[in-house]
Structure formats: structure tokens, C-alpha cells
């Protein structure tokens, strides 16, 4: 005889599942709440527009580097994908935005879309190579892709300018009103707003069910696959999104500098992004921005003190950061946010 299902047991199971679902929703909503350190961070960032008018050129570089580091953090900090050739998407976005400005129109906002599309296409086309092998394979594949694009840009001098760089770029005013000036005021505000919007999008992505599944994949891909998470499609999706972010960073560089060289595709660009994340930490989005600020300030100060040996001192500081703990800033920031959140929940 077939045993009849117990209505009481079924009801208890449904109740437990519903409670689990409500708990997950509450956790996700809590993660999307803005903490006081986050609010203060962005208030200070936008206040720098008025408080540091003489530093807008270096602040523009910091904002662009932060966008680039944010793209790397999406794949490294949340999906566990290690890349040594992320400059491939950055350079693709930079050259695409530059060629678009020369041959089509210098309108910056559509140029951003073109740069993002170029980075996303390169990332999507090469993402399937990353699905085979482990971290070492991914390191070599990403490094090889960047090297191939570098050589293509070098040889296609009629299109890219080769070793002389892509010149003749002229950008129209943003929204037809705000001209790019030599002091970098417009460029900094432009880059900072783009950084903030991309951060908001990334914050939604990593705190969504998609982002939670990426963390599960990062911790244990086999276990994630066993519970029904489509591992490979998720990795392709986040790598493509990160490529679009890197393409935007490259387009921002083109728009503010109005010149592109082969350095945009060089290994040094990828290394800079990784160094930034070593300083700021991975897996909490703010690491790229904090690291970009610290890296550029340290680089500028040391270069002014010892122009010949600044790379030595930066390398030494990187060793200190690694020994100190690259996740230390992340833990400090997370601890402050957690304490304030618990205090606020206690008052409620």
C-alpha cells in the first residue's frame, strides 16, 4: 500500500520553507541598506569637487583607476576569477571610444556605451577559454589575450596609430554644455559621477541572488553545481559585465586625455589594478576605490621625493601591505558598518 502523505508534516515543511525565504529576503534587504561609513565615503568624494579644485587632474586618474579596479573586483572578489590580462578590455574600450570619436562623433555619453560594448565583447569572446582549467590556466590565458591585443594594436598602426598612439581625438561638450578643460574640473566630475553610477549597479548585482550564487561558486564550484547553480553561465555573465566596466574605464581615459597609447593594453595596466586591490582588499567593492586613492597618492608622493627609485619604494610598500593583511581595510570597514547596523536595528 502507498503511504499517504502526512498533512501536518507537509504543512510544517511549507512553513519552514516560507520562513527561510523570508529570512533570505530580510538578509538581502539588510545588505542593500546604506551604512553611515558608506554615506560619509560618498559625501567626502563629492565634496572633493569643491574642496580640492587644484587636484582634479590626479583625482580624475584616481576615479578612472577605481572604475578599472572595481571591474577586477567583480571577478576576483566575488567569482574567484584571477586575471593578469584585464587590460585587454580596458584597452579595447579606450581604442573603441577613441575611434568612435574620430570617425563618428565626439559625444562622450555614446562613446561610453561604445567603450563598454567593446570591453564586453572581448570579455564574452574570451570568457569560454577561462572555463577550462584552474587559476594558473586562467592567468596564462588572460595574459595571452592581452598580449595578442597589444601586438594587434601595435601592428595596425593605420587604425590605432601603433607605437605613436591614437591622436586627433576631439571630444564634444558633455550634454552639449560642459566642455573638457585643461584643469580637469569637468573631467573629474564626469568620471566621479560615472564611478558612482557603476558602483550602484555593482552593489545591486553583488547583493542579488545572482551575486550570492557567485560567492557560492567562488567558495566551492563543485558544491555550487551540486545544488543547481549554473556555474559556467554565471562565470561568463560576470566576466562579461566586468569587461564592460573595464571598457568604460578605458573610454573615460580616452575622453579625459584625448589620446591613447599602447600602455592601455600593456601588462602594467593589469598589474596596477591588482596592486590597487592588494591595498584596498577584495570582495566588498570599496577596496578598489580606497586602494586607487592610496596607490595614486603614494605614487605621487614618492615620485616627488625620489623620482628615480619610486618603483622600489612602491614595491616595498606592497610587501608591507601583503604582510599586514590585504583584507585588513575590508575587515575594518565591515566591522564599522556591522556595528552601526546592529545599533540601528536595536533602536528599531
Commentary on this structure:
This protein has one domain: Orthogonal Bundle (ABC transporter involved in vitamin B12 uptake, BtuC). It contains 15 helices and no strands. It is globular, with a radius of gyration of 22 Å. Helices cover 76% and strands 0% of the residues. The mean pLDDT is 85. The chain has 348 residues and is mainly alpha-helical.
Envelope shape? globular
Give the CATH architecture. Orthogonal Bundle
Stretches with pLDDT under 50, minimum 5 residues: none
Tally the helices: what do you get?
A: 15
Q: Just give the CATH class.
A: Mainly Alpha
Mean pLDDT: 85
Give the DSSP E fraction (strand runs of 2 or more residues).
under 5%
Instruction: Compute the number of strand runs.
Output: 0
Largest sheet: none
> How many domains comprise the coordinates?
1
H/E series, N to C?
A: HHHHHHHHHHHHHHH
Determine the oligomeric state from the structure. Answer: single chain
What's the CATH topology name? ABC transporter involved in vitamin B12 uptake, BtuC
Structural class: mainly alpha
Alpha-carbon Rg, integer: 22 Å
What proportion of the residues is helical, as a percent range? over 70%
Please give the alpha-carbon distance between the first and last residues.
Answer: 54 Å
Amino acid at each position: 500500500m502507498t503511504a499517504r502523505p502526512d498533512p501536518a508534516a507537509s504543512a510544517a515543511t511549507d512553513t519552514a520553507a516560507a520562513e527561510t525565504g523570508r529570512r533570505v529576503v530580510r538578509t538581502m534587504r539588510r545588505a542593500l541598506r546604506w551604512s553611515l561609513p558608506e554615506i560619509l565615503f560618498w559625501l567626502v568624494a563629492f565634496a572633493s569637487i569643491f574642496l580640492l579644485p587644484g587636484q582634479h587632474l590626479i583625482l580624475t586618474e584616481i576615479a578612472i583607476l577605481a572604475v578599472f579596479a572595481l571591474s577586477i573586483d567583480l571577478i576576483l572578489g566575488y567569482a574567484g576569477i584571477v586575471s593578469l590580462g584585464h587590460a585587454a578590455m580596458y584597452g579595447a574600450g579606450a581604442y573603441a571610444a577613441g575611434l568612435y570619436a574620430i570617425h563618428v562623433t565626439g559625444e562622450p555619453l555614446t562613446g561610453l556605451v561604445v567603450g563598454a560594448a567593446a570591453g564586453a565583447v572581448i570579455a564574452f569572446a574570451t570568457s569560454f577559454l577561462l572555463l577550462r582549467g584552474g587559476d594558473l590556466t586562467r592567468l596564462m590565458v588572460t595574459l595571452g589575450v592581452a598580449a595578442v591585443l597589444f601586438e594587434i594594436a601595435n601592428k595596425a598602426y593605420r587604425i590605432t596609430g601603433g607605437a605613436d598612439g591614437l591622436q586627433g581625438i576631439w571630444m564634444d561638450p558633455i550634454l552639449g554644455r560642459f566642455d573638457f578643460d585643461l584643469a580637469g574640473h569637468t573631467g573629474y566630475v564626469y568620471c566621479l559621477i560615472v564611478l558612482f553610477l557603476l558602483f550602484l549597479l555593482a552593489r545591486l548585482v553583488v547583493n542579488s541572488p545572482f551575486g550570492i550564487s557567485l560567492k557560492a561558486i567562488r567558495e566551492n564550484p563543485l558544491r555550487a553545481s551540486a545544488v543547481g547553480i549554473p556555474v559556467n553561465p554565471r562565470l561568463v555573465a560576470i566576466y562579461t559585465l566586468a569587461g564592460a566596466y573595464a571598457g568604460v574605464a578605458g573610454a573615460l581615459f580616452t575622453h579625459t586625455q584625448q589620446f591613447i597609447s599602447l600602455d592601455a593594453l600593456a601588462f602594467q595596466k593589469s598589474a596596477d589594478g591588482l596592486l590597487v586591490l592588494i591595498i584596498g582588499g577584495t570582495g566588498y567593492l570599496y577596496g578598489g576605490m580606497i586602494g586607487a586613492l592610496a596607490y595614486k597618492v603614494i605614487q605621487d608622493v614618492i615620485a616627488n621625493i625620489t623620482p628615480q627609485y619610486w618603483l622600489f619604494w612602491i614595491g616595498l610598500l606592497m610587501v608591507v601591505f601583503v604582510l599586514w593583511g590585504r583584507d585588513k581595510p575590508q575587515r575594518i570597514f565591515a566591522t564599522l558598518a556591522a556595528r552601526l547596523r546592529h545599533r540601528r536595528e536595536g533602536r528599531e
